Amino acid sequence: MSNPNAVGQMQAECQAMFFELAALQEKIRAKVSFYADEKNLKGNELVGWLGEVYGKLLFDGKLVHDNEEHDFVASDGRRVSVKTRKGWGNGWKRTSAIPKIEGPTCPTDLLFVHLNDDYSIDRIWLLEWSHLLDTNRFKKHTVRGSHRSFIFDIHEENDKSCVVFGKDSGPVVPTAIRWQPPNVTVTYGGSMQEFRDRGAAIRKASTALVLEFMKNHPDANPDGPGIRQAEIFRECGFGWGAYPKATPSNQQYWIVALLNELQAQGLVMQVSESGPWRRTN
Q: Which H or E run contains 57?
């Protein structure tokens, strides 16, 4: 027997946090994209994005398209492939798969970026590709007995001289790119796209607030009588007070769109036409 109610319950409990997470991810993506030379940052691969952007900034380079064997071209012409790892698990010193290691289109250098658990930079190594070949540092990666690709492992002690950023190279991580804990006020640059992104984050945070409020109000349970729009508006603190040309009733129009957005996502429903609202699960 399947148990859809258990799945729905867990989703409802986590949904508000998912909204906040999605808003923060979109905000980070917009910030990283500013430095990405108009390259399309695919998927949700923040660790990989950071490695490539840090590398190109470090060497005053330019990111290239995904069909290349390298990730950016440095200002001196070097073609650099970037591999990035985060955290301190057993596999942090090992790269992801490297499809080919020889040929005219291969990189000239390998940049290995290691991030701490909070996404701050631990160290960055730059290693000459031809030297890695000559010293057999690339190892065959086999899957069920078949050779699929190559991998590379950093040797912390032996490769210390190759550290170009971090604790073994002298410079410290600039404050501008350190992780900032919650409740720290961040100053923005003020680009038009950034204002739109911040507005989108406010909308997502507001929907998360309303959903969390409805989860904690017994009348908003799926089998409850529902909550009036005015009460949701008031209890969630959306009111600006009474003004001659913006009465509390006028101000509620914004939450009408918010509730309709949640309804479109299948998270809430209106009990009747112009009636109260309740959660769907």
A: helix 46-58
Task: Centre a 10 Å sphere on the Cβ of residue 49 and count the other Cβ atoms it contains.
Answer: 21
Q: Which residue has the higher pLDDT, 85 or 193?
A: 85
Q: Which fold, 36-177?
A: PvuII Endonuclease; Chain A (3.40.210)
Strand spans (E) along the chain: 62-63, 72-73, 79-86, 109-115, 121-128, 139-143, 146-151, 163-166, 268-270, 277-279
pLDDT confidence of residue 169: 61
Residue that the structure tokens 């949701």 belong to: 232
**Band of the pLDDT at 175, cuts 50, 70, 90?**
very low
| CB 122 within 8 Å of CB 114 | yes
d(CA 89, CA 117): 10
d(C-alpha 135, C-alpha 123), whole Å: 22
- Pick from 6-20, 47-61, 174-188, 220-234: least confident: 174-188
278 pLDDT tier (thresholds 50, 70, 90): very high
| Second-level CATH architecture of 192-279 | Orthogonal Bundle (1.10)
